[in-house]
Design a protein that fits this description.
alpha+beta
Length: 178
Amino acid sequence: MMIYFDFNNEKILDSLKATLTRDNLGDLYIDLQKTPPKNIKTYFSISYFDHILSEEEYINEKFVCYSNITKSSSDSLIAEMNKVMNNFLRLYDFLFDLNDDFVYIDNNSSIIKTKNKDLYVRNVINGLKERPLCTLVFSNLKLMVEIGYDLTHHFYFVENTHFEKIKEMVLLNKLFII
């Protein structure tokens, strides 16, 4: 079977906005370049830290991201990083399940629509490692998540229907809403 290149289809797959619009979900697209985005009902950030770090705190912190951990890091520091990453992964696992096992992923190289949990988890792990960062759209939850730098992620709700349930799960996983 010959595979053909289709420019129009490829252009759609290059843009999260175009992909969501094509799937009649254009209202879920949040233009993060506009301040503040117009269609969000609720916004918050979640973090491993309980507040936004000052420059001095940032410099003095044991780790602020995956790349701070090296082969020469102590076993206890590696164990602490594993715990933090797993707290985030449990939250993202919950979101995938709550969204009926489906997600849109913008991993800065392509737009992926998937029900494949392994593919989803791999993209989330890469996002947690900032290699590359990614944006997730949970269409049933009316939620867009931007996995951010320094163990801080941004949640944008187009509707508040699932806000309390998600907030509860954030706190249950020992993460902070800032």
